[in-house]
Amino acid sequence: MTYYPILLTSVFKKMIWGSESWDISCRPQEMCVIKNGSAAGETFESYIKKNPAEVLGTNNANYTRFPLLVKIIDAREQLSVQVHPDDAYARLKGEADSGKSEMWYILTPPKDGRLIIGLKPDITREKLAEAYENGTVENCLNPLHVQAGDIVNIPPGLVHALTPGTVVAEVQQNSDITYRLYDYNRTDPQGNPRQLHVEDALAVSDYEGKIRKTAMPKTNTDVKGANMLTRVISNDFFTISEYIISDPLTEASDPKAFSIFTCVEGSITIESLSMTVEVAPLCSVFIPAMLGSYTIRPRAERAVLLKSSP
Length: 310
Fold this sequence. Notes:
Elements: E1 11-15, E2 18-24, E3 26-27, E4 30-31, H1 44-50, H2 52-56, E5 68-75, E6 81-83, H3 87-92, E7 102-108, E8 114-119, H4 125-134, E9 141-145, E10 151-154, E11 160-161, E12 166-173, E13 179-182, H5 198-204, E14 220-224, E15 227-234, E16 239-245, E17 249-252, E18 259-265, E19 268-272, E20 276-279, E21 284-287, E22 293-298, E23 303-309
Antiparallel strand pairs: 1-2, 2-5, 3-4, 5-12, 6-13, 7-10, 7-12, 8-9, 8-11, 14-15, 15-16, 16-23, 17-22, 18-21, 18-23, 19-20, 19-22
């Protein structure tokens, strides 16, 4: 089988607070379809199942669920204050999905410059429960000032919310579990209050401050000519690197694991022995584990990419 860089159709979702583009998704109700090469028109799931070890990598050969989900999120209004469980809690509750660890790359910062990331230092479970009862949850939330290019890690247990005007690229576990703690008393299109998951949110939230509530440092940088490759996040679910590309960069796929490039600034071409593809701004490309050597070229003076791998 010949492998090449895969471009996928996005799954677009209109939300009460804005919109999401699910650019790399392999879920029954949100299934991307391949749009280039010999597999054009085929679902992403069908393509993977032909040879999981070569497409996803030998570490993922026995997969039961594609491990990652990549989105572009446009928050025109305030998102609900929410938190995600870990895998163990999701199993305990009998959830259909796994837990959810995710990260944000800030494309456009919020109008007031602040996201909600974590709880204030003195907030206990009892205080948060009391605040829910008396309508003062907002007083418990930690504001984080961010700017374009910041990366925020959001592991399970970290209370968080995007705020108006924010656009982010998000990489996460392939899960759609969200426990809403507070939603500003909004209603759905039918006029019903939006569902909250207060008890679950209270159960999984981090009250001890164990989780970082600042943007991730960008210190682990490998300089290759005029290019800068920085490993930013590495956990049990994904590894995230930022590539700042000013000159052509040649590297090889990893037979153990696939990777995904998302253009967060500018655009690129990726040249492989089998095919050359153009990746537009704010779009992603899937690199099969057995692709082999490929070269990334910026289409202008520079491009900034997120590289994500399981």
